[in-house]
Design a protein that fits this description.
Number of domains: 1
Distance between the termini: 63 Å
Order of helices and strands: EEEEEEEEEEEEEEHEHEEH
Strand content: over 45%
Helix content: 10-25%
Radius of gyration: 20 Å
Shape: globular
């Protein structure tokens, strides 16, 4: 090479990036697509519906997330619309070689509209790192159901999360006023942390189920009745109904979630892509 050295550039690992936006509107009393945008690994598919409502399925085509990956979802249910959003599969957070994965979700629900945010579980693998945000803006008469379920490894596969990072931030507003805020953070020695009774008492699966709408107070007793002696509880205050659920593994968690979701959805089952 004429005697001169060839410069070596650092080869950076490939990172996943994706952004998707969906807006629904009402046309002749049926929920229709208004805005549709997808870029990178974030995709949306809309199965055919015959009841006037809409179901959207979010897909991360990278097959999972690791340090440095970024996904952004934005969903707007326009006035009078009825929209259910779920995911094609569980989101997997793999071991990070540096940094954290990031998932940011922004939801807006218009007047007399309903948005049911029902993604499948997030699976955190050992040494995985995830920071996630959920921001929701509700109109005065909007209905919202929100779910986030997390598996700290797959117990059936003998997996446990010894260390890593899981940080989840929720902010829910009605007419611009903050009505719910919570932050969950599991970091460092996750086994030692989750073994504590006030945290998970050694369990590996947990979920938060949130309802905000006109039926919340009436549903409280029925929801508690569904849980029975299971590791779950529900409370209603300030116009919101919140349930916390803990289980040994994914199957046990879904056995509790599926009837609870159906109750909040006025008898409708979870999205079609769900299974027990």
């Amino acid at each position: 090479m004429h005697g001169h050295a060839i410069s070596q550039r650092e080869i950076l690992p490939q990172r996943t990036k994706g952004t998707a936006r969906l807006t629904a509107k009402t046309v002749d009393a049926r929920t229709r697509l208004d805005v549709f945008f997808q870029e990178g690994s974030a995709k949306i598919r809309i199965p055919q519906s015959y009841d006037g409502r809409m179901e959207a399925v979010l897909i991360n085509t990278s097959g999972g997330l690791t340090g440095g990956d970024r996904i952004s979802w934005q969903v707007d249910a326009g006035a009078g619309s009825h929209l259910t959003v779920t995911t094609q599969a569980c989101e997997r957070i793999y071991k990070s070689s540096g940094g954290h994965a990031e998932v940011n979700t922004v939801l807006k629900v218009g007047a007399d509209a309903a948005l049911h945010w029902l993604p499948q579980e997030t699976i955190l693998f050992d040494h995985g790192a995830l920071k996630r945000t959920l921001d929701v803006d509700l109109d005065e008469n909007a209905e919202f159901i929100g779910l986030e379920a997390v598996l700290l490894g797959r117990k059936a596969m003998g997996e446990r999360v010894a260390s890593g990072l899981f940080r989840d931030r929720w902010r829910i507003r009605r007419n611009g006023t903050l009505i719910h805020a919570e932050d969950v953070c599991l970091s460092g020695d996750i086994i030692a942390l989750t073994e504590k009774s006030p945290v998970l008492a050694g369990h590996q699966a947990f979920a938060t189920l949130f309802y905000c709408g006109s039926r919340g107070e009436a549903l409280l007793g029925r929801l508690r009745g569904l849980f029975g002696e299971a590791l779950a509880g529900a409370s209603h205050w300030n116009g919101k109904l919140i349930a916390r659920l803990v289980a040994d593994e994914a199957y046990d968690l879904r056995k509790m979630l599926i009837p609870a979701i159906s109750l909040l959805r006025n008898g409708d089952p979870p999205p079609k892509v769900w299974s027990l």
